[in-house]
Amino acid sequence: MIFDREPKDWKELQKFVGQLFSECGFNAEVSKVVELVRGKKEIDVFVQDVESEYKPVILVECKFWNRPIDQEVIHSFRTVLNDYGANLGYIVSKVGFQQGCIDAAMKTNIKLVTLKDIENQYFERWKKALARKYRKYADPLFPYWDYPGKRVADGGAIDSKKWILVHQAYRPICELGPGDDLVSTYTKNLPFVLPIINDSLEVIGSLTITTYRELFNFINENKEKALKHYKILYREEV
């Protein structure tokens, strides 16, 4: 899923929800104060889909309660949605909802979910959005891994074994391409193991990638090191 652990408190639940929408390409603000018909109201997570033509607004209420949500929360939140004119509302519960909530939310624009529910709903969009975001880091690497299209700086021969090693070490970055956000799903065969290499291009360990969060974190944290090691390989940098 999108997160590798559960939130530890209500603040982190709000943070996770805001982060989820933000990483999907929405504009998301946590604890945003908005103007309603009857005054101001703080919204746990305020979301707008700026990539859509009509820029719909989504309001999210987060409840880190150790008991199921009661229907009074639904009635109150429905008033907030109507007063603001939001297109959609989510109530995110830690443990679920009383039966009365399901009846109260029926035929409204409110969706009753857990964090896992909302992760499932936006999982494919999240993967493709981050693949598109990080794709720019693959572009500078392309001339290097598109062997033998690039010449070594001193005109000598490339060490083919080290070329394979560097490509294996940074394969998640090299494999990002312009088609990743066009296909129906961005899919990798997880888990997989990557070699960890030093500046001498020698293996010093290994890293197992088990989740998409770990995969995207790896890309973000190693984008500069990948380019550095390719430059060392092609003797453009000592």
Tags for this model:
single chain, Trna Endonuclease, Chain: A, domain 1, 5-stranded mixed β-sheet, 8 helices, 7 strands
Q: What do these coordinates show?
A:
This protein is α/β, with parallel strands linked by helices and 238 residues long. Helices cover 40% and strands 21% of the residues. A hairpin with an 8-residue loop joins strand 2 and strand 3. Helix 6 packs antiparallel against helix 8.
Write a short abstract of this structure:
The protein is 40% helix and 21% strand. It is of the alpha/beta class and 238 residues long. It has two domains: 115 residues, Trna Endonuclease, Chain: A, domain 1, CATH 3.40.1350.10; 96 residues, no CATH class.
Helix content: 25-40%
Average pLDDT figure: 92
Count of DSSP E strands?
7
For the sheet with most strands, the description reads: 5 strands, mixed
What is the CATH class designation of the largest domain? Alpha Beta
Q: What global shape is seen?
A: elongated
Structural category = alpha/beta
Beta-strand residue percentage: 15-25%
The side-by-side strand order for the widest beta sheet comes to 1-2-3-4-5
Number of separate helices: 8
Can you name the CATH architecture of the largest domain?
3-Layer(aba) Sandwich
Order of helices and strands: HEEEHEHEHHHHEEH
GO molecular function: endonuclease activity
Domain Restriction endonuclease type IV Mrr: 9-118
Keywords: Endonuclease, Hydrolase, Nuclease
Pfam families: Mrr_cat
